[in-house]
Design goal:
This protein is mainly β. It has a single domain (2-211), classed as outer membrane lipoprotein receptor (LolB), chain A (Clam), CATH 2.50.20. 11% of the residues lie in helices and 48% in strands. The protein has helices at 2-12, 37-40, 108-111, 210-214, and strands spanning 16-19, 24-34, 50-56, 59-66, 70-77, 82-89, 92-99, 114-123, 126-133, 143-148, 153-156, 168-176, 179-189, 206-207. The strands form 2 sheets. Strands 8-9-10-12-13-2-3-4-5-6-7-14 form a 12-stranded mixed beta sheet. The chain is globular and about 50 Å long.
Length: 218
């Protein structure tokens, strides 16, 4: 179970979402699958999982509802060069202060380099192009991203989401430690409330470093 928690945190932890000219919010549905019996046994708890991604100038936020199992919120402010991550899981409330967002770089040697294909399709009316990221070690499945540049927003520092690509993935899948996670955008709204970008850590959360959060995986 601890390994599953760490896997989900790796997949969903957001780096920087830096809006250039457009603000709004995207809703994604999430589907999970695994050939690992231990992880597969936990999949029923993931039913109905969603992610909401909010963005406006210099700021981003994401709310993740992992079924009845886990809640996660991240808020990033590129102008202030900092952010927060809040996690509620297995009765624990954990927070992490993210510093020096601008210094975080995408390590394509570690996670693979995106390769553009000729395939295109529309998602929510946006033109998308397919990219494939092969596992550098050749041990896992390829990651697939359908990216649109119609939304004038740049994702930076989100290794699991964009791999440094310009544009916004509206559909993507990734394999982490035996679990496949697929995100699909189901709604786009041009309005967003500034209140979702609050960087204050609520009371009741235990503040941990990134290394301490990683050690939760055992």
């Amino acid at each position: 179970m601890k390994s599953l928690v760490l896997t989900l945190m790796m997949i969903l932890s957001l780096g920087t979402l830096s809006a250039q000219t457009t603000e709004g919010q995207l809703t994604y549905k999430m589907d999970f699958s695994s050939d690992n019996p231990q992880m597969a046994a936990a999949l029923p708890m993931m039913q109905g999982s969603t992610m909401k991604l909010y963005f406006m100038k210099d700021k981003s936020a994401a709310d993740v509802m992992m079924g009845s199992f886990m809640k996660m919120k991240s808020v990033m402010d590129t102008k202030a060069d900092k952010g927060i991550i809040l996690v509620e899981v297995m009765g624990q409330k954990i927070a992490n202060n993210v510093e020096s967002i601008s210094k975080k770089k995408v390590d394509t040697d570690k996670i693979g380099k995106p390769v553009a294909t000729s395939e295109t399709k529309k998602i929510l009316g946006f033109n998308c192009k397919k990219y494939v990221i092969k596992d550098p070690e050749g041990k896992g499945d390829d990651s697939v991203l359908w990216v649109t540049t119609d939304i004038k927003t740049t994702l930076a520092g989100q290794e699991q989401f964009s791999n440094g690509l310009e544009g916004v993935p509206l559909e993507f899948s990734t394999m982490q430690q035996g679990m496949n996670v697929r995100f699909e955008a189901t709604n786009f709204d041009k309005t967003v409330s500034p209140a979702v970008f609050n960087l204050t850590i609520p009371e009741g959360y235990k503040v941990m470093t990134e290394e301490e959060m990683a050690r939760m995986g055992g």
